Amino acid sequence: MSQNIVLHQWEISPFCRKTALTLDHKGLAYEKLDYNGFLGAKVVSLSRAGKLPVLDIDGKRIQDSTRIARYLDEHYPEHPLYPVDPIENAQAAVWEDWADESLYWFEVYFRYIDNNAMEQVLDIVCAGRPKYERIAIKAALKVDFALKLRMQGLGRLSYDDIVAEFTLHLDRIEAVLARQDWLVGSERSIADIAVGAQLAEVVRTSQLRDVILARPNLGKWLKRI
Length: 225
Prior knowledge:
The protein is of the alpha+beta class. The protein has 9 helices and 4 strands; from the N terminus they run βαβββαααααααα. Helix 1 crosses helix 7 and helix 3 packs across helix 4. The longest helix is centred in the middle third of the chain and has 28 residues, at 86-113. The protein is globular. Keywords: Transferase. Residues 3-80 form the GST N-terminal domain.
């Protein structure tokens, strides 16, 4: 087992949460390094894409939560993240991709549109940093979120339409969990971790937490993750 595993992360990132959960799933001990406030400028030296998570493991530096998960399954096969059965493996990968590429934008939107949620985000990303950094980071996040949401498409829709679409997704997840304990197969997989990491961040900061937790199977599933 690797003795020096370091997860470079933003505490508020669902993708960093996803990677932490994959490491926990594997039973691997690791250190977290947070890049709060203006420390985020150092991320470009870790990742050419300027994004986190980045994982230092086995003398390697791996970027991107999905690439990290696949690396862990290849090199630490105990407690697999991706099911062995080829059909379940494909289903888990589809759930993961949907969480990373679609569900994520709902989480971004609810943080951007809700001032209380945004303030909670700033409390986390600016923890331990000088107060002046909060002002600059808040302005940068608002501009960044607005631009990305508009380009992605959600930024062009009404709030009511977005909540309705998000609620429909929750209903679908609830329907799956009403019949089985996990999204794919009989054990926790990357599907549960990827989707759960996104929803856990909505629960953490957004007023939509009550909409999520009101669904009994979904709420119990999140606790199990």
